[in-house]
Amino acid sequence: MKKLWDFGWGLYKRHEEGFNYLIFGFLAFVLNYILYFVFADALSMHYMVATVLSWVLTVVFAYWTNRTFVFKSRNKDVSSMMKEFISFIGARVATEVLEIVLMYVMVDLVTVNDKISKLVCQTIVILANYVLSKIWIFKDKAQEGEGNEQ
Fold it and tell me: Are the C-beta atoms of 122 and 33 separated by less than 8 Å?
């Protein structure tokens, strides 16, 4: 059992960022999906309004988890943190626009069930968010951290 644990822990440590993104991305997905159901079904909101509201709340959660647990940003000064946050929000706005367009196409034009459409859209959005976070938002922070450790 110890060898299995050591193997699993070693695998996690070698790919910690990817695993953490999958874990917190999954939690953000679940949060987004639950909020969407609450807004769309329990509160009878239009699917577009439910999509936007679930997105706003999920983005706050995603920023905190990406900054803290996934990319482990070392930015502590207010200016750097604001730049990081604005970049994060900008990327998320872009992927939310993508989600809204895809939801419209799938639900209104192609007449796919809105719950299935939401699942497909969220998968695409999670992948796009990782790429944008990795190559744009938290990129310099990781390189600065590596440079400080040498």
Answer: yes
What tokens were used for 22?
A: 């999958």
* Locus of tokens 């679930």: 54
Q: Higher-confidence residue: 149 or 94?
A: 94
> What pLDDT shows up at residue 75?
84
Q: Which residues, in sequence order, are CB contacts of 49 under 8 Å at separation 6+?
A: 39
User: Cβ distance 63 to 82 under 8 Å?
Assistant: no
Residue burial 94-130, b: 16+ Cβ < 10 Å; e: rest: ebbeebeebbeebbeeeeeebeebbeebbeebbebbb
Based on the number of CB atoms within 10 Å of its own CB, is 83 exposed (0-12), middle (13-18) or buried (19 or more)? middle
